[in-house]
Amino acid sequence: MPPPDANPALDCPVDAANWDSVAFSPVTRLFFVVTLEMCRMGKVWKGAEPRLEPPQRFLRAIDIGTGNVAWEIR
Question: Which of 3, 21, 34, 35 has the most crowded CB, counting CB atoms within 10 A?
C-alpha cells in the first residue's frame, strides 16, 4: 500500500453507509438505510478533499434474503 502522500487515487464511494438510523420490517423482510455516496481524491491525510461530483443521499430498501436493492429514493 502506498504512503498517504503518494499519487492521489480515486476513493469511491466514500461513506456509503453512515451511522444514521436504520429500520427492518419482518413483514416485507426489507432493511431500510440512508446512504451518502460521493467520490473524492484519495489524498485526505493532508486535509485536501477535492470532491469530484456532488454527494448524493439515498433512502434504500435492501432485501435481506438477496442483498439486492428493492427500491431507492434519491
Answer: 35
